[in-house]
Design goal:
single chain; alpha/beta; Aspartate Aminotransferase, domain 1; Aspartate Aminotransferase, domain 2; 3-stranded antiparallel beta sheet; 14 helices; 12% strand; globular
């Protein structure tokens, strides 16, 4: 048997797609499944964006572009980031990629060296690709725990304790996947103050849900003194404009933009030219559809939180952003005799036909925080009502108390 590399062995996955495959298999068997497992808007891409892509095809914009992306899109991204965050971003600071996800790897590869013991601090629970890429690229993963009592944020004082001379990168994500938590201004300011004392640390700011904040304000670390130069600001088209399959993201950092450009050249060559022209329309065209989607997500958030808090054994905080809820199912697990959230998730899928993700799909379970599951409420009102009702019936019918 030919050996594979340590890098390949340590490469993780995104369990949303694993569960999605499980859901597909059950549906092919004729099972009725209501799925909340994938973080994807259920709306079509707005028509004006579709039309921009069609125009690009008809105008023969089919070939390679510069690796950093077409100038028109880089200018639009720079303008959008500058206006929305109150900062100054140049088009030369912007690199376009095939989704926002590649920039996680590009950032880790650009500021850490394989096997050197360089450390990357990342949120736990968190987007699973963070830890996967840290490990596969030979850095040391250092989780910082998000606490339910802190609205699923971390204590800035804990961050100070995590930073060592080996720390090279801090990953922050607000609004947050999987909890929907939003880092408040006072905490972001405290994070910036701590980082000023540790100039060797870069920051990867995952802001792909920046336009999906419902409570309070969106705050970017780049807005604080001395942070813009050190922060890799990452955003994309997928969530705001329902463009997940178009694979179009972008990152901005003055010092690292040339490095990211070389990574793009070495990997994808360039993002799809057609998707780039579509994204240009997304950023510069009418925003009515984007506002409608955001308003719909807010209504769905309020609905699912209200319904989940009526389910026996379940408590659910109201998240400040994104389109996820992270209910605590510790008592529900105890009621039905499930040893943990993963057993609860599996039984809920196979016995009640409701697909969710368990907390362990987003990193090691946080000590003393109980059991949690994730719902993506990027689903119809009817699906939310039916899915939560099924879960309530499942717990009631299987309760041992």
């Amino acid at each position: 048997m030919h050996a594979i590399s340590r890098r390949a062995r340590e490469l993780g996955t995104e369990n949303a797609f694993v569960v999605l495959a499980e859901v597909s298999r059950l549906q092919q068997q004729g099972k009725d499944i209501i799925s909340f497992c994938i973080g994807q808007p259920d709306f079509p891409t707005p028509v004006n964006i579709q039309e921009a892509a069609i125009r690009a095809i008809r105008d023969r914009k089919h070939g390679y572009t510069p690796s950093a992306g077409i100038v028109e899109l880089r200018e639009a991204v720079a303008n959008s980031l500058s206006q929305s965050r109150g900062i100054k971003v140049s088009p030369d600071d912007v690199v376009i990629g095939a989704g926002a996800k590649p920039f996680i790897a590009y950032s880790i590869q650009s500021v850490t060296d394989y096997g050197a013991g360089d450390e990357v601090i990342y949120p736990n629970p968190g987007f699973p690709i963070y830890e996967s890429q840290i490990r596969a690229l030979g850095a040391v993963p250092v989780p910082i725990h998000l606490r339910e009592a802190l609205s699923f944020n971390f204590d800035p004082n804990e961050l100070e304790k995590k930073i060592t001379p080996k720390t090279r990168l801090l990953i922050i994500n607000s609004p947050h996947n999987p909890t929907g938590g939003v880092i408040p201004r006072k905490d972001m300011e405290a994070i910036a103050e701590i980082l000023r004392r540790h100039p060797q640390v870069w920051i990867f700011a995952d802001e792909v849900y920046s336009r999906l904040v419902y409570d309070g304000e969106f705050v970017s670390l780049t807005q604080f003194p001395e942070m813009l130069e050190r922060t890799i600001l990452c955003d994309g088209a997928s969530k705001t404009w329902a463009m997940t399959g178009w694979r179009l993201g972008f990152a901005a950092n003055k010092a690292l933009a040339p490095v990211f450009t070389r990574w793009v050249t070495n990997t994808e060559s360039c993002a799809s030219q057609i998707s780039q022209w579509a994204a240009l329309e997304a950023l510069t065209g009418p925003q009515d559809d984007a506002r409608h989607m955001r308003d719909s997500f807010l209504e769905r958030r309020d609905l699912i939180v209200r319904l989940l808090n009526k389910v026996t054994g379940v408590t659910c905080q109201s998240p400040g952003g994104a389109f996820y809820v992270w209910p605590n199912v510790t008592e529900a697990c105890d009621l039905i005799g499930a040893k943990d959230s993963e057993e609860f998730r599996s039984r809920l899928l196979n016995e009640a036909g409701v697909a969710v993700l368990a907390d362990i799909h987003f990193g090691p379970r946080v000590p003393n925080e109980g059991q949690h599951i994730r719902f993506s409420y990027a689903a119809s009102r009817e699906a939310i009502e039916a899915g939560v009702a099924r879960m309530a019936d499942f717990i009631r019918q299987n309760s041992r108390k």
